[in-house]
Design brief:
The complex is a heterodimer. Helices cover about 10% and strands about 60% of the residues of chain A. By secondary structure, chain A is mainly β. By secondary structure, chain B is mainly β. The chains are: A mainly beta, B mainly beta.
Chain lengths: ~260, ~200
């Protein structure tokens, strides 16, 4: 399915490119101005929370799979520009992993979980803003960019009633996210190779390297039911996940600020 | 202009006053209940939840369940299906349950109070509490399943005898009514329990 989609897209680009190769003005197609673009592709992400049996209330993060980008920006006559990007990623669901890690720490106990659902998301989103520079030729341009942004991660209260098999011993365990509105800071280094099919539009291939910097806080609470003791621990966790995305799309350029010939 | 503001101020004041004076009328019927027919079961708390079991029972997971029928008049069982919207209030609040060792064990003398070796289990998921027997008013007087007509109190023996064997326990239950003890207190001895 993906191969057919890609072949169709390339055929579409080739056909349009043939029609656009009619003799025209010799000046570059690129001009300062406003642009917007939409692209879709594939991304690969490392999983910072799936190592070391970490039990945390941060339950979903970007994962390998589909990515989509909506970009807008402005380019100035000196080829520098400002770029804003909204991206969507497929998100994982760490609920089972978290449960497995927690149960591994308490062998011989049975667990009853408070339902975990509020923090589950099928997608994650990302907002980013940065600078770009355009290296131009007549019809094409290469535009590297550096952006800073934030990436949504899912979170939820992880709470369980834990009972030891064969005795009355029981605990109530809770992991509470400390950052209610938290989004992970994200550093993006990318580049776009674009081909003008007309004065106002074209197609592009976009590649990005991402570093998602998790700097999360949460609280672990343990209540021993028989002893009626209460333990509370604040945990500060710093992790970094890396990702790479590649996408294809189309762009529109409006508000061209062209030099007078 | 002054007249306009006076009218506006009066109107807002009226709305606030009138709004606050409106009381929420609670249509629910208060049903006073009494407890009938004390039943006692042995519990095995080895698993996820305490289950009614027969002797012998593991010492480390031994418990007792007291269950009753609810009655509004002290004679007939309360029929919940005939009540549409109600809340229950104990007519004679249960104030205290005390446990005694009938024959003694370990360093415990016969007849000695061993209430501190038991806890009242109060479970309303996800909450789980084990209360000491002298401070469990909430667990005694409105256990979680009472609204379903299922009045139960579970006692767990958290400090069991050190040796397996046959043991006998006695129970003393004390009620209050209008802060004055009434003649509903009850004491009974449980059948012999085999603990392994």
């Amino acid at each position: 399915m993906n191969t057919r989609y890609l072949m169709s897209f390339l055929a579409f680009v080739w056909a349009i490119n043939l029609t656009a190769q009619a003799p025209g003005p010799a000046k570059p197609y690129w001009a300062a101005g406003l642009f917007g673009s939409i692209g879709s592709g594939f991304g690969v992400f490392s999983q910072a929370f799936e190592k070391g049996k970490i039990v945390s209330p941060y339950t979903s993060h970007p994962m390998s799979g589909w990515v989509g980008h909506l970009d807008a920006g402005i380019s100035f006559r000196n080829h520098w520009g400002i770029r804003a990007s909204v991206s969507g990623f497929k998100a994982n669901n760490l609920t089972n992993y978290i449960k497995g890690s927690l149960e591994g720490a308490y062998p011989g106990y049975v667990f009853d979980y408070v339902p975990i659902d509020a923090g589950q998301h099928e997608t994650s989103n990302q907002f980013a803003l940065g600078i770009s520079y355009a290296f131009t030729n007549r019809r094409w341009l290469f535009q590297p960019d550096l952006m800073l942004g934030s990436t949504k991660i899912g979170k939820d209260l992880i709470a369980a009633r834990v009972k030891e098999i064969g005795t009355h011993q029981a605990f109530i365990l809770q992991y509470r996210p400390g950052n209610v509105k938290y989004r992970s800071p994200t550093l993006i280094l990318g580049g776009k190779a674009a081909w003008y099919l007309g004065w106002y539009w074209g197609v592009f291939a976009d590649a990005r390297m991402l570093a998602i910097l998790y700097n999360v806080q949460y609280q672990f609470e343990k209540t021993a039911v028989i002893e009626q003791t209460f333990e509370k621990e604040s945990i500060h966790l710093k992790k970094t996940a890396f990702g790479a995305t590649g996408s294809l799309g189309i762009f529109l350029q409006i508000g061209r600020w062209e030099k007078k010939d | 202009m002054i007249r306009f503001f006076c009218t506006l101020f009066s109107g807002i004041s009226f709305l606030l006053l009138f709004g606050n004076l409106q009381c929420h009328e609670d249509d629910r019927v208060v049903v006073y209940y009494q407890l009938l027919d004390w039943q006692t079961s042995l519990l095995d708390n080895s698993g996820r939840e305490p289950l009614v079991a027969e002797s012998p029972i593991p010492r480390s997971a031994f418990g007792l369940r007291f269950s009753n029928k609810l009655s509004s008049d002290g004679r007939d069982t309360l029929l919940f299906s005939s009540l549409e919207d109600y809340y229950l209030v104990a007519l004679h609040p249960l104030r205290r349950i005390e446990m005694f060792s009938t024959d003694g064990f370990d360093t415990i003398a016969a007849g000695e109070n061993i209430s501190d070796r038991f806890r009242v289990r109060f479970s309303a998921f996800p909450y789980l509490g084990y209360y000491s027997l002298d401070g469990a008013d909430r667990a005694y007087n409105l256990p979680p399943n009472t609204l379903d007509g299922d009045y139960q109190i579970d006692l767990l023996m958290i400090d069991p005898p050190s040796q397996a064997g046959a043991y006998r326990f006695s129970v003393k239950i004390t009620f209050d009514s209008l802060a004055a003890p009434i003649n509903r207190d009850t004491t009974f001895t449980l059948p012999t329990v085999l603990l392994q």
